[in-house]
Specification:
Layout lengths: L6 H29 L7 E5 L5 H9 L4 E4 L2 H10 L6 E4 L8 H7 E7 L2 H14 L3 E6 L29 H10 L3 E7 L12 H18 L5 E3 L6 H7 L3 E4 L1 H4 L7
Parallel strand pairs: 1-2, 1-8, 2-3, 3-4, 4-5, 5-6, 6-7
Helix pairs in contact: 1-8, 3-4, 4-5, 7-8
The chain binds pyridoxal-5'-phosphate (PLP).
Length: about 260
């Protein structure tokens, strides 16, 4: 442990994070109860992007094990600084193939797998690292259902990436066949535009339908990552197994990109 050079500020931040975390845990409890689901069906992942490694250390001390980041450079630095902690790092951002090797060195789970070339790059990287890398396919619910070869989400979707629903099956097969990768399930971000704009519950129910289809051929791929600070209740109601919460735990991000 580093010397506590800033102990009073650390104590204040710890108290703030503890209160926020307790409030989010309560929201998940209530959402599970309302949905008739056992609380242990839902795992909280705290999205720590833009917040300092010190916050992640405090959160770990408060019992948080799963954390998520969306930029490799930032995530790699934090993972290195916090290597003494028992943390599972989830990568949730758009990922360039040239960052695959770095991400494969620290991530437990890549939640944003959305194209065959990325599958190849991650598999090669995982094998080089001698690790098995968990993968979720990021589904673009704002893409046309039956988009053709190479189709991606429309650019209006802020370049969030994702595979169109109609192409989940073959991408899943590619991940499942790739040595070094483990197909764990699906992830989505509620669309801001298109058919599901402002309809989070409907979006997450569509994701659950796609998940049922996936599990028919890949029964172990049962993770469903959906829901953020503003819509975690809708995700839990629909059946999500993982929620990704940033702002409600850590406060408004210092800088938005
Ligand atoms: C930032 C982010 C979140 C968390 O969003 P909040 O609204 O801050 O809870 C969840 N998922 C992804 C993919 C993100 O990039």
């Amino acid at each position: 442990m580093n010397a506590p050079v800033n102990a009073p500020a650390d104590d204040r931040r710890r108290a703030e994070l503890a209160a926020n975390l307790a409030a989010v845990e309560r929201r998940i409890d209530v959402a599970c109860a309302a949905a008739g689901r056992p609380r242990e069906d839902v795992t909280l992942i705290v999205v720590t992007k833009t917040h300092p490694a010190g916050d992640v250390r405090l959160l770990n001390g408060l019992g948080v094990r799963h954390v998520a980041e969306n930029r490799d450079q930032e995530a790699a630095a934090k993972a290195a600084e916090l290597a003494d902690l028992d943390l599972d790092w989830h990568f949730v951002g758009q990922l360039q193939t040239n960052k695959a090797r770095s991400v494969a060195s620290y991530a437990a789970e890549v939640q944003s797998v959305d194209r065959p070339r990325l599958v190849e790059a991650l598999a090669a990287a995982a094998r080089r690292e001698g690790r098995e890398l968990g993968c979720l396919l990021q589904v673009a619910l704002d893409a046309p259902e039956n988009a053709g070869e190479g189709a991606r989400a429309p650019e209006g979707a802020a370049g969030r990436g994702g595979v169109p629903p109609g192409r989940v099956g073959e991408l899943a097969d590619a991940v499942a066949a790739a040595e070094g990768l483990r197909l764990d399930g699906l992830m989505t971000v509620a669309p801001l535009a298109g058919h599901y704009a402002g309809r989070q519950r409907a979006a997450f129910e569509r994701l659950m339908e796609i998940s049922s289809g996936l599990r028919a051929t890949h029964p172990a791929a049962n993770m469903v990552s959906a829901g953020m600070s503003s819509d975690l209740e809708e995700a839990v109601a629909a059946g999500a197994t993982h929620v990704r919460v940033g702002t409600a735990v850590l406060g408004v991000r210092p800088k938005l990109r």
